[in-house]
Amino acid sequence: MLVLTRKVGESIAIGDHIKIKVVEVKGSQIRIGLEAPPDVKIYREEVYAKVTEQNRAAASWDMGDFHRVASLFADKDKEL
Fold first, then answer.
1. Do 47 and 34 fall within a single domain?
2. 12 near 30, Cβ under 8 Å?
3. What is the structure's pLDDT at 74?
4. Which residues pair with 14 in a beta bridge?
5. Which residues on adjacent β-strands are paired with residue 18?
6. Which of 8, 24, 36, 39 is 20 to 30 A from 61 (CA-CA)?
7. How far apart are CA 32 and CA 45, in angstroms?
8. Same domain (yes/no): 54, 76
9. Whether residue 47 sits in one domain with residue 22
10. What are phi and psi of 12, to 5 degrees?
11. How large a percentage of the chain has pLDDT more than 70?
């Protein structure tokens, strides 16, 4: 891991298209700004971990799981 020291207003460039700028330091919190192309997805780490976990769970479904969920929707349609 590369560790850098930056002051408010200073930036770090990653390649040609990504820039990280220190916007504000308040106590133990640091606000950073990120500039990246629209096709680059940026997530907080805890959000990324949750999305990855949910994707793995969804990918592990088998056809039995699918049929059970589909039957729940079919039963709801019958009630209407």
1. no
2. no
3. 76
4. 18
5. 14
6. 39
7. 14
8. yes
9. no
10. -130, 130
11. 92
On whether both 6 and 31 belong to a single domain, the answer is: yes
Question: Looking at the predicted structure, is the pLDDT value of residue 25 above 70?
Answer: yes
Higher-confidence residue of 64 and 53: namely 53
The token pair that represents 32 in the structure block: 């950073």
Are both 61 and 80 inside the same structural domain? yes
Is the Cβ–Cβ distance between 33 and 27 less than 8 Å?
no
Same domain, 64 and 31: no
Q: What is the mean pLDDT of residues 61-67?
A: 76
Do residues 11 and 22 touch, judged by C-beta distance below 8 A? yes
Q: Are 34 and 42 in contact (CB under 8 A)?
A: yes
The answer to whether residues 41 and 52 touch, using CB atoms and an 8 Å cutoff, is no
Integer angstrom CA distances of residue 79 from 63, 66, 71: 25, 21, 13
